[in-house]
Amino acid sequence: xxxxxxxxxxxxxxxxxxxxxxxxxxxxxxxxxxxxxxxxxxxxxxxxxxxxxxxxxxxxxxxxxxxxxxxxxxxxxxxxxxxxxxxxxxxxxxxxxxxxxxxxxxxxxxxxxxxxxxxxxxxxxxxxxxxxxxxxxxxxxxxxxxxxxxxxxxxxxxxxx
Length: 161
Fold this sequence. Notes:
Radius of gyration: 19 Å
CATH architecture of the domain at 15-118: Orthogonal Bundle
Strand order of the largest sheet: 1-2
Distance between the termini: 47 Å
CATH superfamily of the domain at 15-118: Winged helix-like DNA-binding domain superfamily/Winged helix DNA-binding domain
C-alpha cells in the first residue's frame, strides 16, 4: 500500500531529523539555532539604516516577541552582541554584533552551508532549488505574508461582473 500524499505531514516528519542535525551543528560552535538566527539577522542589517525592533527580530527567527528578551540577554552576556542604546517595546533594539559575534557566525556559516548542500540531503542542485522554492511558497501561503503566485486577490474591485 502506498503512502498518501500529505505534504504538510511530510514537513513535520522531516523537521525532526533536520532539527537534530541543526542542534548538533550549532552546539558544536556554542550556539542555539535561535541565537544563530539573531546573529545572522544582525549581520544582514550591518551597514544599513534599519535596526530591527525585538518584535521584528522575533518574527524573523520565528519566536514569540516575549521570548526575545531572554535570548538577547544571553547574547549580550556572552559578548556576541552589544547594545547601542536602550531597546524596549516597539523601539529599535540598539543591538549590533561584536567581533566575537561575527567570529561565531564565521564559524557556523560554512557548517550551515555544508549541511544544506544538495548532496548532503540526497538531492541534485536543481531539486534542492526547487524544494527551497516550494517550501518558501508553502510557508508564505500558511502564514499569509504574501499572496501566492498565480492567485488573484478579490476585494470586490477586480471581481467579475
